[in-house]
Amino acid sequence: MNTITATKESERRVRNYGLLIFSIFVIAYFFVYFQRISISVVGSDIEASVGGSAAILSAVYYWTYTAMQIPSGLLADRFGPRKSGFVFLMLASVGSFVTSFGNSFGLMVAGKIMIAAGMAIIYIPLMKLVSVWFRKTDFAVLNGITIAVGNFGAIVAGGPLRMLADAIGWREVFLVLGIVTMCLAALCLLIVRDHPHDKNLPSVEEIGHDLHGEQIIERSDAKIPTLKGLRIVFSGGRAFWTCAIAYFLVYGSIMTFQGTWAVRYFDNVYEFAISASWMVTVMGLGKIISTVFIGILTSRGIIHSKRRIMIFGCLCYTLIWAIIFLFVGKIDSYWFWMLISTMFGLFGGFMSLSFTQVKEWYPIAISGTAVSGMNIFLFLGASVCTTISSAVISVSSQDSFSAMWGLMLIFAVTATVLMYLSKEKKPEDKLLGSELLSETKNSKNP
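Now predict its structure.
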């Protein structure tokens, strides 16, 4: 393996170029959330224009996004974030154009599939790049910033998107999205590099060793065979499965409420004078606050146990669902539900730490696979829950909403129990699959 001697100047250059790459991908991640939430706001416009069902479009998006999670991790580890990011951002761009110009519900579905498949290959390569270009202590705060930017996309896809669609039309919105996404794909190809060595710069571990006297435990350019990486991730026991299933339940309930039904629920049950799309906006705002705040506290070592803070977040999230379920149609106050919606997003954001907790158990060589392993359960949860919701809420009545919110409350309680049973890595614990790094190194150096 090649090594490059680090200097103070090269350390600065690695940091600055890493931030440039991070900025390109995190801007793309803004549109991941924007596209994901947009159906809850412009879905009725699409129905009026071409027929069909917005709930079907939402379910198609989540099922496609879910199906692409394992491939996205494998592509990020095998071909690198640069190539995979470029190809799939171009796919999302084409999907946006199809949505903009499509004149049938079938084309809407096809466009949504392409958008979902393309946007699915953003978060995993981004986390792979963070693992390679930044120190481990930066992961929590950069992941928090990423989730926050994504949720800002969700905010813009609430009230502001409604205003934009009313002003220029929903088709024109998707036309602009297609152009912007194509520009991001070009930036990905021209600027993004998979590893500091690709810019003739030292790796993060070489900088730590040469300038700060840190021992090199694992190399960011190490490789583990794809199938072995998958086996390592999915044999993680309590280190992986408790967090994965808990986030399945939490994220599924978030996307059922925030991403699919919240606007229709508040409009149909309460008929507030102010648009309920602003409820979706404050949910995203609450999640931004929690993900950034928790990420900063974790990176600075103020939060010592990610598991405990997530248990607390799940308990509060369960309480919010209990309020939503118990008071269906009973409190006719717009500002009360604005507060509850904000708290919904705030405590739902605590589970973003599960990515950091799970990732710490695995080598950098399979960090993309590990994160994609988690991500597949997030969006499997969204897919399953939105599909169930379209059956339960076949008619937008108070009783059908109440039944669905009761199920989501059960999911939240179960997630809390699973987080209590989860296993957090301690400094003395070995990385899962670390023995394969030694085997790979020995096979290359007989």
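DSSP finds 18 helices and no strands in the chain.
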